[in-house]
Amino acid sequence: MPEQTREPSLVLVGLMGAGKSTVGRRLAQRLSRRFVDADDEIERAAGMSIPEIFERFGEAHFRDGERRVLARLLDQDGIIIATGGGAFMHPETRRMIRDRARSIWLKADLDTLVRRCARRADRPLLKGSSARETLGRLMEERYPVYAEADFTVESGGDAHDLVVDRIMQVI
Ligand code: S3P
């Protein structure tokens, strides 16, 4: 029997507004691989939107579902996965991603994140607060952890296709 080549899945991590979903979709097209948005999968599995999950069951419940959905996705090789910004922060989820796939941190500056997040009003963590303040705090908390990803690619300001080019160069 011919030996099967196993391409590891690629997992995009980074803050809200870093471009994970858009870049992931385009990267998948370039590589002719399947793209999966983990947030969409969580919504499908729960039968409700992420804001609704946060509101009805709280963040801890959401994180648990996120971990289970990612565990299932990571059983597949060769796909491109965009994660929600908090997924890589959770030790067990992070360990799973690091063990079973290649991770890419899309690193963006605060102005870019604020500008992009202003286009979507449905992010529970940004509700009722200054997005700039919250994103600034999350950058401090999360950037040292995102830095544990296998690759770091600058994703601030630039067109998403350039970010895809950069990823193609490092993987
Ligand atoms: C979150 C990011 C969101 C979503 C949820 C929590 C976070 O995904 O998973 O609102 O903790 O940063 P995006 O990064 O795709 O916006």
Structural class: alpha/beta
- CATH topology group: Rossmann fold
Share in β-strands: 5-15%
Element pattern in H and E: EHEHHHEHEHHEH
Describe the structure.
The chain has helices spanning 20-31, 38-46, 50-57, 59-73, 91-100, 110-117, 131-146, 160-170, and strands at 9-13, 34-37, 79-82, 101-107, 151-154. The longest helix has 16 residues, at 131-146. The protein has one domain (9-166): Rossmann fold. The protein starts with 8 loop residues before the first strand and ends with a helix. The protein is α/β, with parallel strands linked by helices and 171 residues long. The structure holds shikimate-3-phosphate. Shikimate-3-phosphate binds at residues 16, 20, 39, 50, 84-86, 123-125. InterPro entries: P-loop_NTPase, Shikimate/glucono_kinase, Shikimate_kinase/TSH1, Shikimate_kinase_CS. It is found in: Cytoplasm. Mg(2+) binds at residue 21.
Tags for this model:
alpha/beta, Rossmann fold, 5 strands, globular, binds shikimate-3-phosphate
What is the strand and helix layout of this fold?
Blueprint: E1 9-13, H1 20-31, E2 34-37, H2 38-46, H3 50-57, H4 59-73, E3 79-82, H5 91-100, E4 101-107, H6 110-117, H7 131-146, E5 151-154, H8 160-170
Parallel strand pairs: 1-3, 1-4, 2-3, 4-5
Helix pairs in contact: 1-8, 2-4, 3-4, 4-5, 6-7
The structure holds shikimate-3-phosphate.
